[in-house]
From TrEMBL:
It is an enzyme of class 2 (transferase). Residues 35-285 form the DNA methylase N-4/N-6 domain. Keywords: Methyltransferase, Transferase. It comes from Microbacterium flavum. This is Methyltransferase. It comes from the Bacteria.
C-alpha cells in the first residue's frame, strides 16, 4: 500500500483523493518521500486564478481572461493572456515555480518524475526555476496540438502588412519533464522506490517525447467546464508513463476539474489532487467519475 497523506480529502473516488487547499501550503504538510510522480497543469498568469479574476471570467467580462468570439458556431473557451505579463509578473512567476519546486522536492521520492504543462512564452522561466529548486531537467514532451492561438496579422494594420504574422500559429504545447535526483543507479532506485524511469508504452515501444493530440473535445467540456481542461486521451498517456512500474501515488497540485486524477483512476493508479477554488473542487467531484469512465479515442 503506498504511503499517503494523513488529512481528510474533500472528495474521493476509487483510488483518487482530492484536497481543498493551497498546494504550496499542503505540500509542506506532506511526509517526506511520499509522492511517486507529478502530472500537472499549473496556473501561469498567477493572477488568472485569483478570486477577482475568476469572478470576471464567470461573469463573462474577461478581465485577464480573453473571451474569443464564436467560431464555426461554437464558442471557444476563454484563454488567459500570457503576452501581457509585465516584467514584475514574470519575476513573480519565476519565484512561484522556484517555491513550488522547493515544496515538491522533499515530498517526492528519489527518482520521481514531474511532468508540467507549459507554454512556449514562459517555459524557459519555469524550467530555470525548477532547476534552481534542485530538480533535474529530463527534456520536454511535445504535445502536437493545433490551436487558434497566434498567427494573426498586426493589429489595426492587417491591410498594410498582409504578409506578416505577429506570432507563429501555435501547433504544439510543451510539457516540461523533471526528476528528483536518484538514490543510486536507475536500477537500484527502481528496486527501492519504484521510480527513476518512465513506463514504456509497450514491450516494443518506449515512451516517446512527441504525442499527437486533439484539442479537448466538446463531450469532455460538457462534463468538465473548466477553461484549462486537458483531454483524457493525452492525460492517460502522460499519467500512465509517470509510474514506471505502475506503483505509487501520482500528484496533481493544481487539479482543476480533476483530469489528472480521472486519468490515474482510468489506468489503475493511486492519485491525490489539490485544488484551491471551491467551484472547481465541486466540479471535480462530479467530473472525475465521468471522465475516468469515458471512452476516448485520439
Ligand atoms: C490550469 S488549471 C488546471 C486545469 C486542469 N488541467 C484540468 O484539466 O481541469 C490550474 C488550477 O489550479 C488552481 N490553483 C491555482 N492556484 C492554486 C494553489 N495555490 N493551490 C491549489 N490550486 C490552485 C486553479 O483554481 C485552477 O483550477
Amino acid at each position: 500500500m503506498p504511503q499517503t497523506p494523513h488529512e481528510e480529502p474533500a472528495f474521493s473516488y476509487g483510488r483518487a483523493r482530492l484536497f481543498h487547499a493551497d498546494s504550496l501550503e499542503w505540500l509542506k504538510r506532506q511526509p517526506e518521500n511520499s509522492i511517486h510522480g507529478v502530472v500537472t497543469d499549473p496556473p501561469y498568469g498567477l493572477v488568472e486564478y485569483t478570486p477577482v479574476e475568476l469572478a470576471k471570467l464567470r461573469a463573462g467580462r474577461g478581465g485577464t481572461w480573453r473571451i474569443p468570439p464564436s467560431f464555426d458556431g461554437s464558442t471557444r473557451s476563454p484563454l488567459p493572456r500570457f503576452t501581457t505579463l509585465s516584467d514584475a509578473e514574470l519575476d513573480d512567476l519565476e519565484r512561484f515555480f522556484r517555491n513550488l519546486g522547493a515544496a515538491l522536492r522533499p515530498a517526492l521520492v528519489p527518482g520521481a518524475h514531474v511532468m508540467m504543462a507549459a507554454n512556449p512564452l514562459v517555459s524557459h522561466l519555469v524550467s530555470y526555476a525548477l532547476d534552481e529548486a534542485g530538480l533535474e531537467r529530463r527534456g520536454e514532451i511535445v504535445r502536437l496540438v493545433t490551436t487558434l492561438r497566434g498567427g494573426d496579422r498586426p493589429k489595426n494594420a492587417h491591410e498594410e502588412f498582409p504578409d506578416v504574422t505577429v506570432m507563429p500559429r501555435s501547433m504544439w504545447e510543451p510539457w516540461l519533464l523533471f526528476r528528483k535526483p536518484l538514490d543510486g543507479t536507475v536500477a537500484s532506485n527502481l528496486r527501492k522506490w519504484g521510480t527513476g524511469g518512465l513506463r514504456r508504452v509497450s514491450d516494443k515501444a518506449p515512451f516517446g517525447d512527441v504525442i499527437r493530440s486533439s484539442p479537448t473535445r466538446p463531450a469532455e467540456r460538457s462534463i468538465a467546464n473548466h477553461p484549462s481542461l486537458k483531454p483524457q486521451a493525452l492525460m492517460r498517456q502522460l499519467v500512465r508513463a509517470i509510474l514506471p512500474v505502475g506503483e505509487g501515488v501520482v500528484l496533481d497540485p493544481f487539479a482543476g476539474s480533476g483530469s489528472t486524477l480521472a486519468a490515474a483512476e482510468h489506468v489503475g493508479y493511486h492519485s491525490v489532487g489539490v485544488e484551491l477554488d471551491p467551484t472547481y473542487l465541486a466540479l471535480a467531484s462530479k467530473s472525475i467519475p465521468a471522465l475516468a469512465t469515458l471512452n476516448v479515442r485520439d
